[in-house]
Write a structure and sequence with these properties.
Order of helices and strands: HHEHHHHHHHHHEEEHHHEEEEHHHH
Distance between the termini: 85 Å
Helix content: 40-55%
Strand order of the largest sheet: 3-2-5-6
Largest sheet: 4 strands, mixed
Structural class: alpha+beta
Radius of gyration: 27 Å
Strand content: 5-15%
Number of helices: 18
Length: about 450
């Protein structure tokens, strides 16, 4: 068979990402910290760009997560949330960490008693002296075990009070100096803005008090809430991208966190240059970057407001109230592409009175309405069903934990939504809850 060379004309179509499109995608995918680093790199290369660091939060500008936690004048504030049980993922985490410590048997008994009174906030629900009296052991032994348990990540777990929770975090971050220790002992003064009086007590100037305030503001007053959206520890974002605050009319106000966003200034004439306006290409690139930054912030705010409009009940009640929501539905409502939604929520966080929310975790597929479900079964989100499974396990008899099949039947009886045993096991593992045989061992040890 003869082979001959032939000239053939073919037409192909492909998408080429130019530098501007690549930069736009990078801005969309960046959280506040990543965005700041990128802008710093661009400002160092382009003389027409000048980056202004965000203004530090003024004294008294607390993040929403501090709502209801700060001590008021003359009081110490509520110790913890007494109307709820801690997330099973939190209990599973601290139990595994306590077992890894290989405590002697008497200390294990004390550790289990301390874990049993752990609140959803991560604080102790009862004072160590009362636990020592109930166990009929010296208070020093309880304090020794408590000190060991307070080394469990995230810092602040097993705190006796808000000040103790913040002390543990400051100690872990290497910020517990003499001034910080005094400020933590006088939190009501800081909460009420009595800075001059607090400075006199601490023997420091007001600038030092302001530094302590900003360090405290970035801490998490309720470290136990990091487990509310899954079994793994969720990192705390010191400066979230968005801030959600309730409004008097029952709605929500969503805004960009300006204390975390740097400002970009476009200079037509770079400093040190005369007329001419500098390099035209560099100036055009600077203006393009400014436009892309504005578009990124506007898109993030648009998506954040729509998420809050759909998930306002979850911001008030927790992950058990998450409604079914997919990126495709959100994109259709906002007239955006699904990839745009995916990029803008990547790594973005929102602070609320319930704590920190990662935007990506607020999306959840719908479950219910299938053939095996009850005729009047509501359509629930997978996240809400996972949370409900955790609540069922939290209330099960310790000596006779429920199997995955039994969990599925119990869930069906309570919600009308039937899940396969394999799906129940996946949801249980997503909450960080061990299987039946490991939970049974835990119950026998605590008996």
């Amino acid at each position: 068979m003869s082979q001959r060379q032939r000239i053939q004309i073919a037409q192909k179509q492909r998408l080429a990402l130019n530098a501007s499109l690549q930069a736009s995608i990078r801005l969309l995918r960046s959280d506040t910290a990543g965005l700041t680093r990128y802008l710093e790199e661009q400002a160092a290369e382009n003389p027409h760009l000048r980056l202004i660091a965000p203004e530090a939060p003024a004294l008294g500008e607390w993040l929403p997560r501090w709502t209801g936690v700060l001590p008021q004048a003359g009081g110490a504030g509520p110790l913890a949330d007494g109307n709820a049980s801690p997330a099973p993922s939190l209990i599973a985490h601290v139990l595994a960490a306590a077992q890894a410590m290989a405590l002697p048997r008497p200390a294990q008994r004390i550790a289990l008693a301390l874990i049993e009174v752990l609140e959803p906030s991560g604080w102790l629900g009862r004072p160590p002296a009362l636990i020592a009296a109930e166990l009929q052991v010296p208070l020093t032994e309880v304090q020794a075990v408590l000190t060991r348990l307070q080394t469990i990540d995230p810092p602040g777990l097993f705190a006796e009070s808000l000040a103790d929770c913040l002390r543990l975090q400051a100690l872990d971050q290497g910020q517990l100096d003499a001034v910080m220790a005094q400020v933590l002992q006088n939190l009501p003064l800081l909460a009420n803005g009595q800075i001059a009086r607090l400075a006199r007590i601490c023997g420091a100037d007001e600038a030092a008090i302001a530094r302590c305030f900003r360090q405290i503001r970035a801490m998490n007053p309720k470290p136990g809430t990091l487990f509310a959206q899954g079994g793994q520890i969720q990192p705390i974002a010191p400066e979230p991208d968005l801030i959600a605050m309730p409004t008097p009319d029952g709605g929500w106000s969503v805004s960009l966190n300006r204390s975390a966003l740097p400002s970009l200034v476009i200079e037509t004439r770079p400093e040190g240059e005369g007329g001419g306006g500098g390099d035209k290409a560099a100036l055009a690139a600077a203006r393009a970057l400014g436009s892309m930054l504005q578009a990124r912030n506007a898109t993030l705010l648009l998506v954040g407001r729509e998420i809050v409009a759909r998930q306002g009940s979850a911001l008030r009640q927790g992950p058990g109230a998450l409604q079914p929501m997919t990126m495709a539905h959100l994109a259709e409502t906002l007239g955006l592409h699904v990839s745009t939604i995916s990029r803008v929520v990547n790594g973005a966080s929102m602070d609320s009175p319930q704590g920190l929310w990662w935007l990506r975790r607020m999306f959840s597929a719908a479950r219910g309405g299938g053939e095996g479900d009850s005729p009047d079964a509501p359509v629930l989100s997978a996240a809400a069903l996972r949370h409900r499974i955790g609540q069922i396990i939290a209330s099960e008899p310790p000596a006779k934990p429920l199997s995955d099949a039994a969990l599925g039947e119990r869930l069906f009886a309570e919600t009308g939504v039937r899940l396969a045993r394999r799906t129940v096991a996946q949801y249980r593992e997503a909450e960080g809850i061990p299987p039946t045989h490991r939970r049974r061992h835990r119950g026998e040890a605590g008996a």
